[in-house]
Amino acid sequence: MLDPTLALSAAARPPPGPAIQRRRLLVCGGGGRLGAAVLEQMLAEHRFDRVGVLALPPFGSTVKRLQPVAPESAALLAFGADAAVIVFDSERHANGREARFVHPQPAGLLPLAQQLLAAGVQRLVVAVPHQAAGLPGALRAGLANLDEAAVAALGWQQLVFMRMAQTGSAQARGSWPQRLALALLSQLHMMMPARDQPLRAVQVARFVAALALALPAAPGGTRVLGPEGLWDWSRPEGGDAWLQAWLHGRALPGVATPRLRL
What we know:
Layout: H1 4-12, E1 23-28, H2 33-44, E2 48-54, E3 66-69, H3 73-79, E4 83-87, H4 109-118, E5 123-131, H5 137-140, H6 146-152, E6 158-166, H7 176-186, H8 201-214, E7 221-225, H9 227-234, H10 239-247
Parallel strand pairs: 1-2, 1-4, 2-3, 4-5, 5-6, 6-7
C-alpha cells in the first residue's frame, strides 16, 4: 500500500518550472514490497506528469498523478507512457487492494515487453531479483537467457536489466525438505561480500527513479546492471556521479571495497 505521508507530501510539493520536460511512466508490478516502493518514489518525482500502474479494474485511487492502467493494448496506448519499469517481485497480501495490481512473471517478460513497445514505450527498465549464488558472474553483466535476448532485440531506445541481490526467504515454498534447505542457505547470506548483500527496497526504488530520469540524456542501447553496481551507487561516493559515469561509459568513481561480513 502507498505510504499516505509520502503520497501527500509528494502531491503538496510545488510543481517544477516550465523548463522541465513532463513525462509519463508506467510501473508494471506495483503490488509487492519493491514495486510499491518504486511506485512511491516515482510519485515523489514531479518531473513525471503522470505515473501509471498496471492494475485490474476496478482500481480506485485518490493519489494525485497516479493513474491505474488496465493490462490491455488499448489502455496502454491511451495512457501514452514513454518509459516503463517492470518489477518482478513477490506478492503481498496486506489487503484486498493488493490483488488488483498486475504481478508480472519472468515467463511473461517477452510478451509484456512487446505489448509495451507497441503502445509507444521507448525506454524500459526491468528489475530482476536473483540469488547471489544462482547466477554466474559472467551473466551479471550480460543477458541471462533467450527471453532477455529477445527483448533486447525488439529495438528500444533504452533498455536496462537490473539484477538485484535477494535472500532466499522470498522463495521459501515447496516441500518441507526444500524449505529446510532454503532456510539453512539463508543463514549463510551474512558471509557474502557486502556488495552482494540485498539493499533495502527504498534504496533500490531511489535508484530506479534516478535511472528513469537520467535515461533520456544518455546514449541509447542495452545495459545490464549487476548487484555490485547497485551497491556502488548506494555508497556516499557513488550517487549521481556514479550513475552518469555508468550510463555514459566513463570511468566509474572509486568506491571503497567493503570488508567481508562474517
